[in-house]
Structures are given as C-alpha cells and as structure tokens.
Design a protein that fits this description.
Elements lengths: L1 H29 L9 E4 L1 H4 L5 H13 L2 H4 L3 E3 L5 E4 L5 E3 L7 H11 L3 E7 L15 H11 L3 E5 L8 H14 L5 E4 L18 E3 L11 E2 L8 E2 L1 H8 L11 E3 L12 H13 L4 E3 L8 H7 L2 H7 L8 E6 L2 E7 L5 E7 L5 E6 L10 E6 L4 E7 L1 E6 L4 E7 L1
Parallel strand pairs: 1-2, 1-12, 2-5, 5-6, 6-7, 7-8, 8-11
Antiparallel strand pairs: 3-4, 9-10, 13-14, 14-15, 15-20, 16-19, 17-18, 17-20
Helix pairs in contact: 3-5, 6-7, 9-10, 9-11
Bound molecules: alpha-D-galactopyranose.
C-alpha cells in the first residue's frame, strides 16, 4: 500500500510538473510563429476614422477578395477605433449596437468565410484615442472576448495611459492574449515614445509603431492645427525609421504606420514612392483606402507583386539608406537569395539622375549584376560597378540587383 501510495504521489507530482511545463510551453507557443513576414491587410482609420460599421467592413472584405488584394497577399481586415461604446454590467466590452447589429463574432465569421483574418483595436489606457472604453484593468476579460469573436489581430493604442509603464502594459496584454489560447498578432501602437523597438520583441509584440500618426502627405513634419507636434508625411516617417533597421526581423517589425495610398492628397508618383519605401523598410502593408472604389492606378500600386515580394522576403531584413546626396538617396535591402532590392529616391522638385554604386549595397565593384525595374516589370540588362537612372521629382525607381 505504502509503495503504491508513494508511486501515486510521485506520479501526481510528475504529472503536475509535466502539466506545468506543457502549460508554459503552450502559452509561449500560441503566438510564437506569428507575423514571420510583415503583416498585410487593411484598416479603417486612415480613410473612415470613427465611421465604421458592419456593412462597410463586410464590403471592404469582399473588395479585398474581388480586387485581387487577397491574391497579392493582403489578409487582415482590421477595425480601428470606435467599434466599442461602453461596458455592460459584467464589464464586458459592448460593440456599437447600431453600427454592428449582429455583434462582432458575426463580422469575424464573415471575414473568415472569405479566407481572410479579423482584427480589432483597443487601448492600453482607460479610454481609446477617440474616447471609447479602453482595456485598462480588463485585459484578460477582453482577450477572452476577442478570442470568442475569432479575433486574429489586435492593435493596442496608447492614449489615456497616465503613468502606466509601456513595456509592462504591453507585456500584460500579450500575456492575456496568449492565455486566451488563440494566436493573435499584437500591434503595439505606442508611437515610439518609449522606444518600443528596444523591448517590443521581448514582450511579444509583433509590430510597433515608431512614429506619430501618418498624414496623407509626402513632405516632412507639420504641426497639428492646435499647435501641438506633429503629423508626419512620408519623408518625415522614413527619416525616423532609417536608424531603426537592426530591430526588425521575422515576427517583430518596425511599423511606420498604415498606408495612405489612394486617399487622395498625394500624386500617383508620390503614392508609388510611399509604397516602395514601405516595402524596402519591411513595413507592415496595411492599406488605408476605400478598396471598393480604387482607381486602376491605385490598384496597380497596392497589388504590385514584385514590390510586395521585397516587403515579404523571408530573410526579414529592413532596408537601409546607403547613400545620400542632398535630396537624392539610395536605399537597399538584402534579400534571401543574396540579391538586393534598391530604391533610387528623389526628394527634390526636379528630375534628377541617381546612381547606385555596387560598393554601397555590399557588392564588389567588379561584379556583373542583372538589374530589373520593379515598376516597369522589365529586365534592364547587366551592369558592372554601378547603375543609374533618371528619377522624377518625389519619385522612385525601384530595382533588384542580382549577381
Ligand atoms: C491613434 C493611432 C491611430 C488611430 C487613432 C484612433 O492616433 O495612432 O493610428 O488608431 O488613434 O483613435
């Protein structure tokens, strides 16, 4: 009896150890392999702000499939701020009953039925940036709710966080999401204030905003109408992203904010530059325009598979600015097969010739390499030592250079 009792006790002890280990591994592994390449999808904020609804989101999911965006790799359909209105008597978060009459699970089910994934937005503080209820103090409860709705992606903002510690707050929501048992991409939207590139990976963030909000503008920073700093054009954002290249990699990306391509305030040349630069930065490609009514030029930018392939390259390197001569810049990104993606960027106001020297992109001068234009979809031939091209004002020429 004594021996059997001892065996039982040891057995229980072991199985509880095994259980603990399994549980620990289980919680770690739930989100372990997410976002191995930069997430691609669509988000409501840049175009629609608070004007979100079930009908609009479903329409956008349909358009993502019909337009060929899904085929090009876009998968997340993300509802940003303003879907939520209050908490109920049990403190459960309540979606706007007029705008989402069938609830959030119905929206998620519809998105999933199209082979797409579902994202929502909340905030680490007491209220979201638009003043809706935030997640503070409800992280585990909300995570269970999101998992029940089939949420695959959570953008977690940083408004109304008072004295909260950013690293601890994001670690907490990651732990809550993992405890739900559902793999959920965590998008840290802290605007770079506490340098999330230094700790975002450690706390299980899959992407982290590096700057304040993007604006549909090519140029640099501008003050907001109330005098506070600042809204960011494309050039301001790439300047802030440039030094951060070493922090990006599979599963954890610098996020220069969502795309403005197609929202109307930049020229098509500028949108092409914006999209190319996001791709060479290995940035998340989250479209922010109305996919239901895209002009063909905008469609062709967002679905350029050669440019998207640079963004999605499995090596997961973020590109770097490798040469600068006033307004003329060269950016380069190492690709998995050893070739380079290159952008010749003209920030100036007149057409200019921009050279890329092989030495600046990590190749020997004598190397003979094949150059391909990713917007013209054309092989340009083989070149030794360097290549140069005329680049339109605010434009790019985007290439691959393959030895
Ligand atoms: C912040 C974020 C934006 C958007 C809004 C919503 O400004 O940075 O991307 O989510 O909040 O209110």
């Amino acid at each position: 009896m004594k021996i059997r009792h001892a065996v039982l006790v040891v057995g229980l002890f072991c199985s509880s150890l095994v259980g603990t280990t399994l549980f620990a591994q289980g919680t770690l592994s739930v989100s372990a392999n997410l976002a191995l390449t930069p997430p691609m999808g669509w988000n409501s904020w840049n175009k629609f702000g608070c004007n979100v609804s079930e009908d609009m989101i479903k329409g956008m999911a349909d358009a993502m499939v019909k337009s060929g965006m899904k085929d090009a790799g876009y998968v997340y359909v993300n509802i940003d701020d303003c879907w939520q209105v209050r908490r109920d008597v049990n403190a459960n978060i309540v979606p706007d009953p007029e705008r989402f009459p069938h609830g959030m699970k119905a929206v998620g089910d519809y998105i999933h039925s199209l082979g797409l994934k579902f994202g929502v937005y909340s905030d680490a503080g007491s209220r979201t940036c638009a003043g809706r209820p935030g997640g503070l103090g409800h992280e585990y409860q909300d995570a269970v709710q999101y998992a029940a709705w089939g949420v695959d992606y959570l953008k977690y903002d940083w408004c109304n966080t008072s004295t909260q510690d950013a690293q601890a707050s994001y670690a907490n929501i990651r732990a809550a999401l993992d405890a739900s048992g559902r793999p959920i991409v965590l998008s840290i939207c802290e605007w770079g204030t506490a340098k999330p590139w230094l700790w975002g990976k450690e706390v299980g963030g899959n992407l982290w905003r590096t700057t304040g909000d993007i604006n549909d503008r090519f140029g640099g920073q501008q003050k907001w109408p109330d005098g506070s700093c600042c809204s960011n054009g494309v050039l301001s954002i790439i300047d802030q992203e440039a030094p951060l290249y070493s922090y990006a990699g599979p599963g954890h990306w610098n996020d220069p904010d969502m795309l403005e391509v197609g929202n109307g305030r930049m020229s098509d040349t500028e949108y092409r530059s914006h999209f190319s630069l996001w791709a060479i930065l290995a940035a998340p490609l989250i479209a922010g325009n109305d996919l239901r009514s895209m002009r063909p030029e905008i469609h062709d930018i967002l679905t350029n598979k050669e440019v998207i392939a640079v963004d999605q390259d499995a090596l997961g390197r973020q590109g770097q600015r490798v040469a600068k001569n006033g307004d003329l810049e060269v950016w380069a990104k190492q690709l998995r097969d050893g070739s380079r993606a290159v952008i010749l960027l003209n920030r100036g106001e007149s057409e200019q010739r921009i050279p890329v020297k092989w030495q600046d992109i990590g190749y020997a001068e004598h190397l003979n390499a094949a150059v391909r234009d990713l917007w013209e979809h054309r092989d340009l031939g083989k070149f030794t030592g360097e290549f140069s091209a005329q680049v339109a004002p605010h434009g790019v020429v985007m290439l691959t250079v393959r030895p």
